[in-house]
Specification:
alpha/beta, eight-stranded parallel barrel, 12 helices
Length: 314
């Protein structure tokens, strides 16, 4: 099916507007009905465009039919500005399947390969995506950390600005994910003062003016969630994310999509742990799941306003 059958949009016009008006479109990962509904609640409350991001492992967990059934149940319309995005697709087959079932955007992540191998695989994905008007994101540079079983690395390599113009030209991609110091997972920074490499971002933006740039591994890891989790039986230690002020600064430099996954996991876990700790006699899953959903929705709305700047942009 085509994504338009679900009321979805691709990101071309949204990104063009985001670059012009200096905001970022949030790409929130979801894994089930509860996380999907929480994200959509926040997007509607704030009148923000939103990218619903699904990793390969999340798609496997939900199943393609259930996933698209939930999207269909949202009863979307193009004016709602909602895109469905494959996050960190690692193969041509994964991207092809996403396109076939109704995704409007796919990411092919061949960043761990050589430059030539990255170009070759990315170009193949573009060749199958563009005839369906599906947009393609690719990545140069490698982020450290662990997101799931398909997306993890113990090493990081910053994006080389010397490569970006050639890569975009060689592949005909629609957006580029870059590595400037963000990382996957909950343990992103060793200190509170760690800074992103804005010098690299500035040079890439100079060489690719008005081209959509993307930040992965950009969760801020709100410390009140870490505190709540640890106080209610969790063991997250010194989990620390990217400072919201740095992420907001990046939106002024052609970063028009910011991926957030760990923050929603943190919010949900904090809500569930606190509820179960304070209501030990309650065994109704709807209640403790609802507590987790509430915190995801609140956090997504807060980040839309304070980090993305996408509130009111529909």
């Amino acid at each position: 099916m085509n994504y338009s059958d679900f009321g979805l949009v691709n990101t071309r016009e949204i990104f063009r507007d985001a670059i012009r008006r200096r905001y970022a479109v949030p790409a929130f990962n979801f894994y089930n009905m509860e996380t999907l509904n929480a994200i959509m609640s926040a997007a509607r409350e704030t009148n923000s465009p939103v990218i619903l991001a699904v990793s390969e492992s999340a798609m496997k967990y939900m199943g393609a039919d259930m996933l698209m059934g939930m999207v269909s149940g949202l009863k979307l319309r193009p004016q709602y500005g909602v895109a469905l995005h494959l996050d960190h697709g690692h193969s041509l087959d994964a991207c092809r399947m996403a396109i076939e079932i109704g995704f409007s955007s796919v990411m092919i992540d061949a960043s761990a390969m050589s430059y030539d191998e990255n170009v070759e695989l990315t170009r193949h994905v573009v060749d199958i995506a563009h005839p369906h008007d599906v947009v393609v994101e690719a990545e140069l540079g490698v982020l450290s950390g662990i997101e799931d079983e398909n997306t993890q690395s113990t090493e990081s390599n910053y994006t080389n600005p010397d490569d970006v113009v050639r890569f975009v030209s060689d592949t005909n991609i629609d957006s580029l994910a870059i590595a400037i110091g963000t990382s996957h997972g909950a343990y992103k920074c060793k200190t509170e003062n760690a800074e992103l490499r804005f010098d690299i971002l500035a040079e890439i933006a100079r060489r690719l003016p008005d081209f959509p740039l993307v930040l992965h591994g950009a969760s801020s890891i709100p410390q009140h969630f870490v505190k709540t989790i640890n106080e209610n039986g969790g063991e997250l230690g010194d989990a620390r994310g990217i400072a919201p002020s740095q992420l907001r600064r990046a939106t002024e430099m052609n970063i028009c999509k910011i991926n957030v996954d760990s923050d929603s996991r943190m919010a949900f876990t904090a809500g569930v742990r606190e509820y179960l700790q304070t209501h030990p006699a309650n065994f109704n899953p709807r209640d403790w799941i609802g507590a987790g959903m509430k915190l995801i929705a609140e956090n997504c709305a807060a980040e839309i306003k304070s980090i993305m700047g996408s509130d009111g942009k529909l």
